[in-house]
Design a protein that fits this description.
Helices cover 64% and strands 0% of the residues. The chain has three helices and no strands.
Length: 66
């Protein structure tokens, strides 16, 4: 797959599951701001927003097969 930016999320997830790690970057780009905003609204302390957001994407990456 050449241009991941033009591919839907489901196809990107399948590509990552096949070992195409570069396919995760557009997923991150598409969803980072909305996840970060949600975390910012719910985090008990502002300094935790980036850490929790990072951990959210690490968890998502590790559990794509689920």
């Amino acid at each position: 797959m050449q241009n991941y930016q033009e591919v839907d999320d489901g196809t990107l997830v399948l590509a990552v599951r096949r070992g195409e790690m570069a396919a995760f970057e557009p997923l991150l780009d598409r969803h980072l701001q909305s996840v970060r905003t949600l975390v910012a609204l719910r985090a008990p302390a502002a300094q935790l927003v980036d850490e929790i957001t990072h951990e959210t994407f690490v968890f998502a990456f590790r559990h794509l097969a689920d």
